[in-house]
Amino acid sequence: PNRPFHGHPRMLVSDVYSQYESIRRGEQEIPKYFNFASDVLDKWTEIEKAKRRPPNPALWWVDGKGEEVKWSFEELGLLSRKVANVLTKVCGLEKGDRIVVILPRVPEWWLVSVACMRAGVVLIPGISQLSAKDILYRLQASGATCILTDGSLAPAVDSVASQCHCLKTKLIVSKGSREGWLNLTDLC
C-alpha cells in the first residue's frame, strides 16, 4: 500500500486510496459542477508549469507507420479550446446539444472529446464501419445537430443527410475540402 502511485515519488497508493475512501464516506466535498477538461487537465497544466510535476505528454499517439503526435497538457488545453470555439461559435452548438463523431482513433478524436467536455456538448461516438443506414438511424434517434467524420464516411453521410432534419452542420477531418462540409483542421 505504500508504493509510489504510477512512479510518482511523492504520491503513494495509500494516499490515493485514502482520498477515494474519504470521498466515499462523504468526508470530502464533491464539487457541484465538474468538468474533466478544466478541473483535471488544466490543473495538471498548472502543476507542470509550476514545476511541481515533471512534464509528461497528455496525448502520445503513434500510427501504424510510426508517425507520432505528442501533445503536452498545455498544448491539449489550447487545441481543445480552439475546437470548443469551433463547435460553439462556428457550428452554433450549445451546452446539451449533440454531435455524432465517427472517426478512427486519430488525435482529432481525442481532441474533439476534450473539446466537447469543455463546451458541454454531448459526444455520440460511432465506429468507422457504420453503413449509411446505421448513420441515418443514429442521427435521427439522437437528434444530433452536428456530425464529424473523415473523408471515407462523408459520402455515406451525404447520402442520408436530407432525411435528418436536425442535422445542421457537417464537419470533416481531411486534408482536402468537400462541398457542404466545414474542414475542422482549417477552422482551427
Structure description:
- With 188 residues, the protein is α/β, with parallel strands linked by helices.
- It has a domain at 59-186: Rossmann fold, CATH 3.40.50.
- 42% of the residues lie in helices and 21% in strands.
- It has helices at residues 13-24, 36-49, 73-90, 107-119, 132-142, 154-160, 184-187; strands at 4-5, 8-12, 57-62, 68-72, 98-102, 122-126, 146-150, 169-173, 182-183.
- The strands form three sheets. Strands 6-5-7-8-9 form a five-stranded parallel beta sheet, sandwiched between helices. Strands 1-2 form a two-stranded antiparallel ribbon.
- The N and C termini lie far apart (45 Å).
Q: What does the secondary structure layout of this molecule look like, with pairings?
A:
Blueprint: E1 4-5, E2 8-12, H1 13-24, H2 36-49, E3 57-62, E4 68-72, H3 73-90, E5 98-102, H4 107-119, E6 122-126, H5 132-142, E7 146-150, H6 154-160, E8 169-173, E9 182-183, H7 184-187
Parallel strand pairs: 5-6, 5-7, 7-8, 8-9
Antiparallel strand pairs: 1-2, 3-4
Helix pairs in contact: 2-3, 3-4, 5-6
Low-pLDDT residue spans: 1-5
Largest sheet geometry: 5 strands, parallel
Per the principal axes of the C-alpha atoms, what is the gross shape?
Answer: globular
Number of strands: 9
- Major sheet strand order: 6-5-7-8-9
| SSE series | EEHHEEHEHEHEHEEH
Q: Round the Cα radius of gyration to an integer and report it.
A: 19 Å
The CATH class assignment of the domain at 59-186 is Alpha Beta
So how many helices? 7
Structural class per helix/strand content? alpha/beta
**Proper CATH architecture of the domain at 59-186:** 3-Layer(aba) Sandwich
CATH topology of the domain at 59-186: Rossmann fold
What number is the mean pLDDT?
87
- End-to-end CA span: 45 Å
Strand content: 15-25%
Keywords: ATP-binding, Fatty acid metabolism, Ligase, Lipid metabolism, Nucleotide-binding
GO cellular component, one term: mitochondrial matrix
GO molecular function, one term: ATP binding
Organism: Tricholaema leucomelas
